[in-house]
Amino acid sequence: MSAKIWFIIFFIIFFVIAPAGFPFGVFFNLFGRHKAPKNSGRRRNEFLARIKIPYEFSEIKISSAEGLDLFGDYISIGSKKTVLLIHGYRSCPYVNFSTVNDLYVQQGFNVLMIYQRTLGKSGGKFCGMGMSEQYDVLEWIKWLEENTSVEKIVVHGASMGAATLAYLSSKIKSEKVKALVIDSCYTSVYEQMENVLNKNKIIRYIVTRSSRALGLKLAKVDIKDSTVDSLKDNYIPVIFLYGEKDETIPFIFVEKCFNINPGEKVLIKVPDAVHIKSLETGGPEIQNQFFKYLNNYIEEA
Hints:
The chain is an alpha/beta fold. 46% of the residues lie in helices and 18% in strands. Strands 1-2-4-3-5-6-7-8 form an eight-stranded mixed β-sheet, with helices on both faces.
């Protein structure tokens, strides 16, 4: 068979499978399972080595509402206050909170660092980009209430973890949850896709429509669901964080989340900080400001 005929066959096959392969490829890259970062184990050991006061370390396993195994690490320093840290997309708590976890321990918090579904040992076939994970966080709050003597809980989410927390915000009924920390939150996966693909209208149209259809069919989530729909009914105090050099989440999304939230709130913007690095980049000045607000919310609650 001549090279010309092979080229024609290849050309035909490409145009037949591309319309199906392209949206499925995008969908599974966004919503499929991912391994925890290779350095997560090393980061955990380094964090534990930095703790200079007595502590107890426990690997925790719970079940999601639909029966998925979920894992987390609980570092107890014997405090009555605990922070629950929710990591971002395709990451892990020891990577996203490599400085933040130290700060919380120094401020006298126990730390619960969870692995979101589809990440590491935690179960699940599809990542829900915060929409499914929000209900998992409710189970973690329940675990803290039933298995520890904690009296005050702070929930802190970064990036997709911030969206997870924002989706959840109006559903939290526990009186022990005294404050939320939402660091670099998007409004919806749909709007974030449009933001990333804003220079190519054709690709943007294909990706957003196909991903929404596949999300509804396979992952059982609607990427048009917005975090603002929950935040508008939230009355738990919130600290919003944003780095002014964030190239992942535009400030307009964070601003929309901040403005819609009706309860007590504050927005801390940090010059020179990139995505979810506000507390690290801001140094002692921003860290002191952050914990001043947080401790006031905890004490007033």
